[in-house]
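User: I'm putting together a small comparison set for a docking exercise, and I want a reference complex before I start. The sequence is below, and the ligand is 2-acetamido-2-deoxy-beta-D-glucopyranose. Could you produce the 3D structure with the ligand included, as structure tokens?
Assistant: Of course. I'll restate your input first, then give the structure tokens for the complex.
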Amino acid sequence: MAVIVQLVQGLQTLAGNLTNPANLTQILSTLAIGIVVILILIQIAQRINVNKNAPPEVPYWIPYLGSAISFSLNPLKFYDDNRKKYGDVFTYTMVGRKFTVCLGIEGNNFVFNAKLADVSAEESYKPLTTPVFGKGVVYDCPNNMLMEQKRFVKWGMTNDAFRAYVSEIEEETREYFKRWNNKVGGRGDLFTAMGELIINTASRTLLGPEIRALMDESVAQLYHDLDGGFQPINMFFEWLPLPSYFRRDNAHEKMRAIFMKVIEERRANNVTNKTDMLQSLMNQTYKDGTPFTDRDACHLMIALLMAGQHTSSTTATWALLFLAENPQILKELVEEQKDVLGSLDAPLTFDHLKSMTLLDNVIRETLRLRPPIIMILRKVLRPITFPGTDYVIPKGNYIAASPIATQVDEQYYKDATKFDPHRWETIVEEETGETVDYGFGKIAGGGARNPSLPFGAGRHRCIGEAFAYVQLKAVISTFVRMYDLSLTEKGMPGSDFTKMFVQPVLPVEINYTPRK
Ligand code: HEM
Ligand SMILES: *[C@@H]1O[C@H](CO)[C@@H](O)[C@H](O)[C@H]1NC(C)=O
Ligand SMILES: *[C@@H]1O[C@H](CO)[C@@H](O)[C@H](O)[C@H]1NC(C)=O
Ligand SMILES: *[C@@H]1O[C@H](CO)[C@@H](O)[C@H](O)[C@H]1NC(C)=O
């Protein structure tokens, strides 16, 4: 009883003190001093390196949040500034996690070729990907199953399949741009156009005509909701009860139901003669006899849709922006179109695409300067030493590769920030001779020391590269044959780093004039 009385009296005195302005100032200043002392202590604690062999750490003022703000404003500048102070390997803190970035070609090689027992991609990406893709595929299964899934997918990306895709992509492109002003031209929303065109062409070719037919209505909205749940925030905060999370989960269920219905219809009608990827995914079994179910096929198709969409649509947008900025290159590109096709209206084929070297180099150069993926993560499962140093990266950290650092390095590319597709005519890609097969076909073994790695390397290397090139080349070929283009008075847009995939700052408009 006495305790309660004392407590009440104490609270009354405190309340009295708080409402007295003189006391309030005193309390606030004590509080301020307290906070400063804590912040200084945090700084000192950061500098006492408990683990002598740990890589250098970027200091920060705000506990938990760490360097999150300066990193997300411009990760490339953040890496560049800190690289000057600490070298190629250093650790920064973001949202309570430690990231050790490994720059340079040795850094790329270290991350991409790290051993399965040492690091894990799924531990890094799972919170983001599993709710969107669904269970049992990609990062929600053991790595050996992912390797087999990549093999299943590659069967839908053969040259025979590509032969069929090229005319479909050209047709989709011509159809799409009917909505632009084809008499006098105008200003077009390039980013929106490329986003819609890539989803239309990818669904028509890989996912099949049934799903393409639904793309204008239901599926496009579902895709939009899934995309809203595929953002950096989803990676850091798994359980936030945000409306976007509910929309994401709802969209996932509905998307799977739509894909499932298409599969069931094909089965009911005994369809076996289709050559698209959907048909190949309907008919797969793991090596150990485990069936790859229709549900797995639906989830893998959602994953492919997400993996290919922003990567390809931002690349198409940047490539056309670079062409608009460089009229001389655009002119040469149109000449190449005439040379290879005979005339600007001749129908495009896969063999034509293979002969368009400058077009190939325009895409290669765009991906060197504006790769959509600038950070590749693996979670460290047991302490690993960075080769050639004493640095031991502790278990629980994430290691990060950022191949864009070498892609814009003067050491490897003269006038590194200049858009010059011709530079690729003289670059001989390093050939080490050795190849590795992780289960989805042979890839270059020493490839991770290549300074340009927009598609990654090692066991997690992209399997969509060949498809992306076919799709991008067919879209850009058709586009530049239809229109002459130039930048608006706003010039080249900057980069928005707050999205999962780096994209131009919106809106992106372009001036276009029909070629006739
Ligand atoms: C310009 C277009 C593209 C770029 C720049 C790109 C880039 C990348 C990169 C950097 C990785 C490695 C990720 C890591 O190591 O953590 C990757 C993996 C992958 N990509 Fe792509 N990609 C593109 C298009 C596509 C397309 C069109 C598809 C499918 C249709 C696709 C499917 C995949 C898959 C399945 C993986 C494997 C993930 C893993 O094994 O962990 N990508 N991509
Ligand atoms: C598909 O095949 C099954 C078994 O061979 C047969 O019973 C069924 O009638 C066929 N369906 C159609 C639509 O042809
Ligand atoms: C599965 O593959 C086998 C062998 O290639 C083929 O005969 C069969 O028709 C395929 N089934 C479906 C549903 O595509
Ligand atoms: C597949 O078979 C159906 C009926 O058996 C036929 O109508 C269709 O044209 C065939 N498609 C291809 C791509 O061969």
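Residues 119-514 form a domain with the Cytochrome p450 fold (CATH 1.10.630.10). The chain has a mean pLDDT of 92.
User: Thanks, that's exactly what I needed.
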